[in-house]
Amino acid sequence: MIRVESLHKEFIKEERFAFGKRRRETVKAVDSVSFTARDGSITGLLGANGAGKTTSLRMVASLLAPDRGEITVDDVKVAPGQQASLSRMGILSDARGLYPRLTARENIHYYGILHGMDRAVVEQRTEQLAHWLEMGKLMERRTDGFSQGERMKTALARALVHDPKNIILDEPTNGLDVVATRALREFLRWLRSPEGGSKCIIFSTHIMQEVERLCDHVVIVAEGRDVACGSVQELLTQAGEADFEDAFVKLAFLHPAAPIDRTAS
Amino acid sequence: MKAIFAIFRKEMIDAMRDRRTLLVVLLSSLLGVPLLLLIVSEVLSQVESQEIKRTVVAVDIRYAPGLENYILRQGFQIQPAPADYEKKLHSKELTQPVLLVPKDFEDKLSHGEKATLEVVFDTANTQAQFGLRPLRKILDGYAQEHALMGLMMRGVSSEILQMVEVKERQISRPEERKVTITGMLPFMLIMAIVIGGMYAAIDTTAGERERGSLEPLMMNPVSGWQLAIGKWGAVATVSMTVVVLTVLSFFPSQWLIRNETLRTEFQFGSREALGFLMVLLPLAASLAAVQIAVALNCKSYKEAQVRNQMLSLVVSMVPLTLTFNPGREPGWFQWAPVLAQNIMMNHVLKGEAVGQAAIAIALLVCTVLTALSLSYVAQKMRRVVMA
Q: Which of B120, B237, B334, B352 could form a disulfide with B98 if both were Cys (CB 3.0 to 4.6 A apart)?
């Protein structure tokens, strides 16, 4: 389970025009985001580009220090740069970042060993993931010439090699075709199920369809704030729309008069 | 420990599979020294062959029978110059300067007038340049002889012209070998170290960041120190391998030397090789750490390359300090990295023993340098991604 409470993050953008002339601008990337992601459920972070999804997830992954707010993963507080919470999470970041000169298998193994697993366990786990993600032939190839889909599969297997309870995916379907997207969706559903380990899955996206088809719980993020949350059905009702896209636009951009009720989550 | 080894192993595999970079590094380290020695030996041979060539190329030597006689007496032969000697000097077909004798040479000389001889050479023709000195020596000799004869005819003793006699006395110890051209070698070795480790150092830091693999790497429960030591281990291994290979390349290089002078000057045995390794391996390891530190917070491969090249420039400039005060070695030189190693290598080449204190100091300096760089890398490693 991942709990995020009133997260804040500001960036200071410094622009230089000429010698000595500087303009400093503070950009509020995340301005109070709170949500809870439960075990055995898929939570979607839905928002337009630049809404603050990636920044929020980077803070959860302790790659970024929040200015204010608190993150707990399975009741362990996340501190930036600290490693205790990292072993509980499997993170597929925006940058897939595979090593091009290593094979898919070597890429996955490396992370397994870094997570402190024994060699035998890593090998067994790698085989398992390769089977689930149907990447048999890929394993011995260098990742240099991989397609987007193959890259994503390898990066996902690498993120899950230590069998984490919590899985964070940042725009996992970016650049994937229909077949690959469907396969990923199937895999995530399986991970959510008790056979798959009842994982707690968070993923961010800006694609409505993904959310509609996959998420048990949706958090809409706009301008660095969580503006609405609930199941797809609840959000439709809240917005009074039949179409989810319309509901999203209404909730995200035409701010509700009523204050946000956060206790509902 | 397991994590450090895993990082080290991965970085080594990564470096070994980067074929192109590896090839460049290996070629430059393996070929540099043999090539340098080959060139130096060729040039030396040319200089020496000019000195023993004992021929003078001249136009119209028949107008100067006195000079002709003198040249022949010195054991030199006279060759008539080809008609198109200027062209041939340009095209380097002619490898000797050409002496021009004017028609009225003997005439003027016998009348006590000043006579002019012309020597034609082309500065672009290096070989002909080398022949200039011996030719001048002969002509000066002839001029002096002629002058002395004139004085004697007037009843003046030739002793007057040579009241001061200069004698040379060699006091250098016999085991101290001459180091002139081989003084270039330490510089070559240090350049090999810097180039050898540079690409690996950039690849593990800025390269990884540019490819976007540094961020996912930080999502593993490993500390900055583990990453720093693992990565440094790999880069230092590459650097030290380059050192070993370069030093080993000295042995086959010796066979390429065909010049006797250089061969006696450059005597490289296993004792010298061990001395070099003892001096250079710690330096290679610590420079690897510095290179990683320099490349660490660069956003791209290119930026890191520029910064590392600046480092290389500084490192290669350091030995120049020696040329400003040649021969003198103030105490603080021992404490200056690169400079200390340079001096120690020169001692080894001269066949002298390197003091234990000097080695200990160099080792201490290298250790401190490594520790400082690595602690900087360890502190900064995680923060680099957060920025």
A: B120
